[in-house]
Amino acid sequence: MSDSSVRLQEIRALIAAHKRWDIIFGVVGLLALMVGVLTFAALFIEMVIQGLPRLSWDFFTSFPSRKPDQAGILSAWIGSILVMVVTALAAVPLGVGAAVYLEEYAPKNWMTDLIEINVTNLAGVPSIIYGLLALGLFVYQFGLGQSILTAGLTLALLILPVVIVTTREAIRSIPGAIREGAYALGATKWQTTSDHILPYARGGILTGVIIGMSRAIGETAPVITIGALTFIAFLPPAPVQGEFPFLSFEWIMSPFTVMPIQMFNWTSRPEAAFQQNAAAAGLVLVIMTLSMNALAIYLRYRLRKKIKW
Amino acid sequence: MVAVAMPEALPGTSPAPVPLPKAETRDLSFFYGTFRALQNIDMAIHERRVTALIGPSGCGKSTFLRCFNRMHDLYPGNRYEGEIRLFPDDTNLLDPHVDPIEVRMRISMVFQKANPFPKSIFENVAYGLRVRGVKRRVTLDEKVEEALRDAALWDEVKDRLGQLAFNLSGGQQQRLCIARALATDPEMLLFDEPTSALDPIATASIEELITELKNRVTILIVTHNMQQAARVSDYTAYMYLGRLIEFGRTDAIFIKPMRKETEDYITGRFG
Predict the structure, then answer these.
(1) Which residues of A fall within a CB distance of 8 Å from B131?
(2) pLDDT value for B66
(3) Which chain A residues have a beta carbon less than 8 Å from that of B180?
(4) CA–CA distance, A87 with A82 (Å, rounded to integer)
(5) Do residues B76 and B246 lie in contact, with contact meaning Cβ atoms separated by under 8 Å?
(6) Interval A135-192: pLDDT, tens
(7) Could you tell me which residues of chain A have a Cβ less than 8 Å from any Cβ in chain B?
(8) Which of the listed CATH numbers 3.30.450.40, 1.10.3720.10, 3.40.50.720, 3.40.50.300 matches domain A55-306?
(9) What's the complex ipTM?
(10) 3-class SS at B217?
C-alpha cells in the first residue's frame, strides 16, 4: 500500500520536473515572438505619432517643396502607381507564361531541373543587382532612359521569381485527375491549359502577383540605381486625354519618383520638419503595402472557397 | 497460354451470335520505364458488349484499360509494344503516327473517382463538344440534354444546369462524368472501377446505366468487384501479374472457369 503511494509521489515529482521545461520554453518562445512584434509595433507607433499630424488632403495633392509644411507626395504616389502598372503588365504575362511552360509543357530533364533551381535562387539576388543590370540593359543598351518604363521593367524582373514560384504552386495544387479528365475528352495541351489550368489557378496566381507587387512598391535601391529623381515637381503626361485618341503613352517615358525615394530624400534632410514628412510618407507606404497583402489574403480566401478539391 | 471459353461449349445456354470485334489487342505489352506491366496480351473487345477486366490489385487491368485511350502518353518513360486494332477502319491505336488526341476523341473514359471540372453542370457535359469546336448554342443544348438523359441524370439536374458540378452527390457526379463522356458519341467507353468510391445504391444505378448503354456503345470496364463483373458484363477477362489468364463469356467464366487460377480467384481462395 505505502509502496504504491511512494511510487505515485515519484511519478508526480517527475512530471513536475518535466513540466518546468514546458513553462521555460513557453516564456522563451513568447519573448522571442515579442521581440519581433513589439519592435514592429514600436516603429509603427512612432511613425504614426510623428506622421499622422502631417497627413492631410494637401499632403497628397502637393508636390515636394523646400518648405517642409508645404511639401507633399503627389508626384511620389502617382509615380509609384504608374510604375506598378508597368510592373504588373510585364511581370504577369512573363511569370505566368514561364510557370505554365515549366509545369505543363517542359520535358522533365536536367535542363529544366537546372532552370528550376535558378528561378528559385533568383528570388534571393539582392535587389540592387537588378538595379545595376537594368542600368546597363534598359537605360544604356535599349535607350529607355530614366523613365517609368525602365523602373517598371526593373521591378518586374525583381518580382518575376515570386510570380513564377507562386504560379507553379497554384498549378501544382490542381489534381492530376482534372488534367486527365480534360485530356481524356481529346483536349490539347493548350486547351487544357487555357480552359482548366489557368482558370482554376487564378486565385493563387493573383495572390502571388499582389505579394510580388507589395514587395516591389517598397523597393528603393534598384530604382535609385537606374536614376530616379529625388525631387520632382511635375506630373507625367496624363494617360487619358480630352481629345482623340484619348489614350496617351507619353507618361511611360517620363522621369518620375516613387514613394520610398521621396521618403529617403526627406530622411536625409537635417530639418526635423522633414523627418515628420518622411514619417507621414512612410505611414502611407506601409498602409499601401498592408492593404495589398490584405487584398491578397481576401482573394485567396474567396477563390479557394469556390473551388474545393 | 490463354484459355478461351467458346459460348457453344456451355450446355444450357442458347448460343448467341458471336458479335463483331470492335477492337483487338495483338501481342500488347506495356512498360513503365523498365518495368513490364503487361505481357503479350491478345484479346478481342466485342462490339456493343460489356467486357469486364478482373484480377487482384496490381495485375495490370487499369494499365491495360488506359492503353486504349493512350492515357500513358501523358507521362514520360512509358512505352507500348504490340498493337490495338480499332475496327471497322482497322487503325492501330498505338501507332506513333496516330495522334493520341484522335484516339481520345473516338474512345471516352470514366475514371475511378468522379472528376467533374469546377464548372457548371452544363459546361462539364459540353466540354467535349467545345473541344471539338462546337459553338452553336442550340447544338450544345441538344447534345447536353441528350447526354444527361442517357446518363439518367436529366430529371435530377434539368432545373440547375448552371450550378457548380461540385454541389452534386458522389453518385450524381459520377453519372455526370458518364454524361460528359457520352456527349461526344464515342465508339467505345472505358470505365476504370467507376463505382469503387460509391455507396451500394449509387453503384446499382451506375450498373443499370452500363447495361443500358451497351446497346449503343462498346464498353470495357475494370472492376475489383466480381459480383459487378458477373452482373454487368457479357465477357470477362481475368488478369494476373500483367498476363491475360483467361478470357471468355462471363457466364462460362463464372460457372465453369477453365483454369485453376481463375477459379481460385473467383471463389475467393486467392486475391
Answers:
(1) 185-187, 191
(2) 96
(3) 181, 185
(4) 9
(5) no
(6) 999 989 998 888 899 999 999 999 999 999 999 999 999 999 999 999 999 999 999 9
(7) 107-108, 175, 177-188, 191, 195-196, 200, 306-308
(8) 1.10.3720.10
(9) 0.90
(10) coil
